[in-house]
Design a protein that fits this description.
heterodimer, A: 6-stranded antiparallel β-sheet, B: 5-stranded antiparallel β-sheet
Chain lengths: 283, 221
């Protein structure tokens, strides 16, 4: 057990540019270790003593089976996701929540293994709350992303699979406004204005690239986000069922009522049938 | 001696799976739009590949997969279509042309051919669009996109496609779909080649560089 502790500490002392958050980080990992010692030991042991050269099998052969997206605009950050949880061909849950609120001004979209995402989001919420209590202010989205990224780092190379986008509004004097970060269990941490993650992301990207700009109104942005998820669920087998839309502003996050995309499909089919019939009548 | 020659080094064949080609049917015919980039691994071999093959004045074929396979088999198809015309004194239908192609490549199934093509034309039954590939698939449909950038193109096409599009709107939709695919897909790029197939045959609408389109759409927004 002592060896485990030393391993984690040295890992983080070598990380530069991570000063104020380091103490809370170390505490976080130590407490985590106390809770499930054997698991960490096994995971770390697997990584360091694993048979040389044998690749760790990934949970999915391709991208995570989902469609989540988030983008920044003048009215804040908009996050949207489908609600299908699949387990290689079986729709395990048609009504899952892929956008998890972390605190009043931060939501995170999840992609990858649902269990991993849910757990790490809860751990992140706990750490951010502790930071807020200790320091009297909320941690920025950038800091939260860094925290999550560093928490996931010891599990690199294992079967942990988390690809999240953190969407938040920062209230600091120097950098206030909407903020969006992509954090992945393979170590990436990227800031951006538009991200889409999952097997349905290419379909969503083309819609988003066409329409997303800084100057959108809230209604326009919601409509584009919904359309992007709808198109992705239409073509991708691993995405489907309903769409969730969350909007983060300086007042906090708000959630739109969950919409079943089946209705949208039938509405569109009906309107196409009507225009087709109107045409035939004209001819 | 013979056995030694058999085990020569594997030659790298240039594949065009890294591509975006699309075609869709609408009231006034079929729109065919393709990019023009050829890649061999991460190397861009060419930015000016012609991925639309003009089989005859009223039939077009697109190219995805092995460039050699596509152009060879479609030239062979052109020959078969001409023979049909001469024998039967009427143009071949799109369904028959695609069936000829599918049957030709089916004989070589499993031998390493790589071809994913869309046969587009206008015949007695109106606009015709078939997807034929070297695995033996032959499907009729209203809308197809083939290649690594196809998923990006599908998103744009699905949201914009209606039966009552005008020719200009349909061309713009095809162009935009290819542009969006080249924006996100590293293996697609170069120029967007656009064709329109109507009752009088096919017409080449435009060839526009993707970077010019990027400027145009950015200024529009």
């Amino acid at each position: 057990m002592r060896q485990g502790v030393v391993y984690i500490n040295t890992n983080f002392s070598s990380v530069s540019g991570f000063d104020a958050e380091r103490d809370s980080m170390r505490t976080c990992l130590l407490t985590f270790e106390c809770c499930c010692v054997c698991d960490i030991q096994k995971l770390l042991g697997r990584r360091s003593h694993g048979s040389a050269g044998s690749p760790v099998p990934l949970p999915f052969p391709m991208a995570h089976g989902t469609t989540t997206l988030a983008f920044v605009f003048q009215g804040g950050v908009l996050a949207a996701a489908d609600t299908r949880s699949s387990c290689s061909g079986l729709v395990a849950c048609p009504a899952s929540q892929k956008i998890l609120p972390i605190h009043s001004h931060l939501v995170g979209t999840t992609s990858g293994t649902s269990a991993d995402c849910a757990l790490w989001k809860r751990i992140l919420s706990r750490e951010l709350r502790l930071y807020q209590l200790r320091n009297g202010r909320r941690l920025s989205t950038s800091g939260a992303a860094k925290l999550l990224s560093h928490m996931l780092h010891p599990f690199k190379g294992t079967e942990l699979c988390v690809a999240a986008t953190l969407c938040g509004w920062d209230d600091h004097t120097s950098l206030s406004g909407p903020s969006l970060f992509y954090v992945c269990s393979d170590g990436s941490r990227l800031q951006g204005t538009l991200f889409s993650v999952g097997s349905g992301s290419p379909y969503a990207y083309s819609i988003l690239d066409q329409g997303v700009q800084w100057g959108l109104t809230v209604a326009e942005a919601t409509s584009i986000a919904r359309e992007a998820v709808y198109r992705a669920t239409h073509r991708d087998a691993y995405s489907g069922n309903c769409v969730d839309v969350y909007h983060v502003t300086s007042q906090g996050w708000t959630r739109r009522t969950r919409e079943d995309l089946k209705e949208e499909y039938y509405r569109e089919k009906e309107s196409r049938r009507q225009t087709h019939e109107a045409e035939k009548k004209m001819l | 001696m013979f056995i030694k020659q058999f085990h020569t080094a594997e030659r790298k064949i240039e594949f065009l799976h890294g591509t975006t080609t699309l075609a869709f049917k609408f009231e006034h015919g079929v729109i065919v739009a393709v990019d023009s980039r050829a890649t061999a691994g991460s190397y861009i071999a060419s930015q000016t590949v012609k991925k639309v093959i003009e089989i005859n004045p009223y039939l077009l074929g697109t190219m995805a997969g092995g460039a050699a396979d596509c152009s060879f088999w479609e030239r062979l198809l052109a020959r078969q279509c001409r023979i049909y015309e001469l024998r039967n004194k009427e143009r071949i239908s799109v369904a028959a042309a695609s069936k000829l192609l599918a049957n030709m490549v089916y004989q070589y199934k499993g031998m390493g051919l790589s071809m994913g093509t869309m046969v587009c034309g206008w015949d007695k039954r109106g606009p015709g669009l078939y997807y034929v590939d070297s695995e033996g698939n032959r499907v009729c449909g209203d809308l197809f996109a083939v290649g690594s950038g196809s998923m990006y193109a599908y998103g744009v096409m699905d949201s914009g496609l209606r039966q009552d599009l005008t020719v200009d709107e349909a061309c713009e939709l095809g162009r935009r779909a290819i542009y969006q695919a080249t924006f996100r897909d590293a293996y697609s790029g170069g120029q967007v080649n656009l064709y329109h197939v109507h009752s009088g045959g096919w017409t080449r609408i435009s060839q526009e560089d993707v970077l010019m389109l990027h400027q145009k759409y950015r200024d529009q927004a």
